[in-house]
Amino acid sequence: MTMAQITSPGPAQLLKFVREFGLTLTVVVLFTTLVLLIAGAPPLDAYFYILKGSLGSWVKISHVLKTWVPLTLCGAGLLYTFRIGLWNIGIEGQVMMGAVFATLTLRLGLNSQWPMWFLGLSFAAAALGGGLWALIAGFLKTKGGVNEIFAGLGMNFVAQGLILWLIFGPWKRPGVASMSGTEIFPQSLWLPYISSLRLSPAAIALAVTAVLITAVMLRYSRIGLCLKAIGGNSQACVLYGLTPTHFMLLAMMFAGGFAGIAGCLQVSGVYHRLLPAISSNYGYLALLVVMLSNYNVWVVPFVAFFFACLNVGSIQLPMMLQLDSSLAGVIQGALVLATLAVSAWRGRRAKIFEAQTQEAVAK
Amino acid sequence: MNEFQVSILFAAVVAGAAPIILATLGETITERAGLINLSLDGSILLSAMAAFVTAYLTHSVAVGFIIGALVGALVAVLVAVFSIYLSQSQVAVGFVLTLMARDLAYFIGNPYSRLQGPQVMPLPIPLLADIPFFGPVFFNHNWPVYLSLVCIGILTWYMYRTPMGLALRAVGEHPKAVFARGMDPKKLQLFYAVCGGLLVGLAGATFSLSTKPGWGRPQGAEGTGWIALALVIFGGWHPVKAAIGAYLFSFLQVMGIYLQGWLPSIPTQVFQVAPFPLMIFTLLLISLAQKEAFLARVEKMPWIRPFIQMLSGTPPSALGKPHEAE
After folding, report:
1. Which residue in B38, B92, B277 is closest to A291 by CB distance?
2. Domain of B155, in residue numbers
3. Would B316 be classed as within a structural domain?
4. Which is nearest to A194 in space by CA: A204, A184, A207?
5. Distance separating alpha carbons of residues A252 and A70, to the nearest angstrom
6. Cβ-proximal residues to A363 (8 Å cutoff; 6+ apart), any chain
7. B38 inside 8 A of chain A by CB
8. ipTM of this model?
């Protein structure tokens, strides 16, 4: 598995990386241009609008950062589950449950004199909500033997149903319930933000902290070592006295907790209410982010930033070129597939080369 | 309810199950050959879009179905090549393709949203359609529905009664044995991935040209791919049992519409997500049915035993583990 492979970069490796990266990028640009031509759109204009729409002004960059925060949080969380070999596809529902628990806490604080306390409490509640939702999938896997992909996926749909029910039922807006979500919270319950950019520094700080904690946990802590060991060979770990199921649940809890905090930020920092699309597919997208980062914690924030640029920039496409904004997803998917293909191809060539040199040495 | 209404209900179940059956059978073949094509949810949408757009442009439903099937096969080929020949994780590639195919469908299909396009015409079978009850339920549909019914039979016969079917099952159980018999496991798996992909593509085309005619965002087929993947497990990798699962699911969907009318106090969202907890529950039962401790405890409850027997099925032992040539 390449999952846990982390090598220190040397000049030769850097060159190899640049070459692979160039090849991948060429493949992706060619493919995307082809897709744009099929859709009858001018490719250069489309690329230009994506670039301008994501990095064209400080307001646009702040939008990108608002997307970057949940992607990075989820990406950091997913590193724990990937490290132990679990496919936590249920992360989307864990973001949703974090948002639900945060909304619940903030609703309790509606008429309170200390709104900041409830704002703080909402993070703990969200982490708990996401963590519990992940634990259910974890127990289904460890105790029930249900594949975590199906358990997680089912739980995602249940969470989505729960949010819809809350918005149209108990938490409906006075008057008419609608897809636009619950009533907007008073400003006292909003996460403090820079007013010119509508961006809250606390959210950025949380995402950065999550990356740092994850890096330390996975590289330098006993837990990180155990996760990696179990992900590599769970049977051998039993002989060493480790209980794989316990660590699986722990990894799920970490992932769910980070995802829950991402959901909380969506409520208190971005939308200030509960929406049907509160998770915005960030959980699913974070799976791609982590795969493209080759499961390396230091790469995750950069890939997340690039994906956020694509997401925010492509919002311009419907306005400017009457195209669907889903082009971002096409580019992101193509990037991951091309990376997998290029690394597999190079791996094969390296293997053949090795075999040839061994033969030559034997002669 | 009188007999007339019951036959309408069951006719709706049979018609609604058609695309789900096609997708489930396609995935059953692929998984029996040892390969998981996780991309179903995306490839169904992509082939639905391709089928609708080509049918719209050429004014031919048949062309739409052919293109839809080919698109489904193309996605399956990607999964197969990445996993069999490039040794990448099937789950990873399948998941990426799920998201990517869906987005590609929305992007390319955008100009064709909410257009009135061609549809499959109803084709009642003469004489058979006049049989009371069974006529309207089974023989008063269009040809994709008949195709779904015929496919169940053909596939079961092919898998369990022909030498090729034996090879199909063998490559999923023990690829090395197939290799020893002089066949190429990789080529066999690629071939059955394509066969499965064609059926998945037909499922997509059935959605956009018959079950939920038209294209849009959302199309209405979203989530079906995941249901089909779960039904393969529910059916214990057997085509007939998987088809029964598809009918049960379609029945739940149709009943949901009725129940909404009867019980307006229950929010609609409950009916929409009901299949998913049920899916988790059945998967749980299937896995528990293979545990000795659980069976011993259930021994005292005889009524539960037939359920367990029905649900017990073992996955092909080489599922998800591609053959590596020495």
Report:
1. B92
2. 3-311
3. no
4. A204
5. 17
6. none
7. yes
8. 0.89
The CATH number covering residue B235 comes to 1.10.3470
Distance from CA of B99 to the nearest CA of A (A): 7
With respect to residue B20, please indicate whether it lies within any of the assigned structural domains. Answer: yes
Determine how many CB atoms are found less than 10 A away from the CB of residue B128: 12
What is the structure's pLDDT at A4?
43
Record: contact B107-A168, CB cut-off 8 A:
no
- Using the Cβ of B110 and the Cβ atoms of chain A, whether some distance falls under 8 Å is answered with yes
Indicate whether A4 belongs to any domain: no
Contacts of A20 (CB under 8 A, 6+ apart): A339, A342, A343, A346
Q: Which domain holds residue A226?
A: 68-294
Whether the CB-CB separation of B190 and B88 falls below 8 Å is answered with: no
Residues B64-120: tens digit of each pLDDT = 999 999 999 999 999 999 999 888 889 999 999 999 999 999 999 999 998 888 888
Question: Measured between CA atoms, how close is A308 to chain B, in angstroms?
Answer: 16
Which tokens is A152 given? 């997680």
Indicate yes or no: CB of A150 within 8 angstroms of CB of B283. Answer: yes
What three-state secondary structure class fits A346?
helix
**Total domain count, chain A:** 1
Overall number of domains in chain B: 1
Instruction: Using the predicted structure, report yes or no on whether residue A198 has a pLDDT greater than 50.
Output: yes
Q: What burial class does residue B295 get, using C-beta atoms within 10 Å of its C-beta: 0-12 exposed, 13-18 middle, 19+ buried?
A: middle
Calpha distance A217→A269 (Å, rounded): 27
In this model, does residue B304 exceed pLDDT 90?
A: no
Is the CA virtual torsion B230, B231, B234, B238 positive or negative? negative
Q: Note whether B166 contacts A: Cβ–Cβ < 8 A.
A: no
For A111, A121, A263, B41, B74, the CA distances from A108, given in Å and listed in that order, are 8, 11, 18, 39, 52
- Residue B171 in contact with partner chain A when CB distance is under 8 A: no
Q: Is residue B216 part of a domain?
A: yes
Rounded to an integer, what distance in angstroms lies between the CA atom of residue B148 and that of residue B239?
Answer: 11
- Domain assignment present for residue B92? The answer is yes
A327 contacts in B (CB within 8 Å)? 103, 107
Instruction: Kindly state the percentage of chain A with pLDDT values over 90.
Output: 62
Please provide residue A199's backbone torsions phi and psi, each rounded to the nearest 5 degrees: -120, 130
Interface contact A344-B87, CB threshold 8 A: yes
Q: Which helix (H) or strand (E) holds A301?
A: helix A300-313
Radius of gyration of chain B (CA): 20
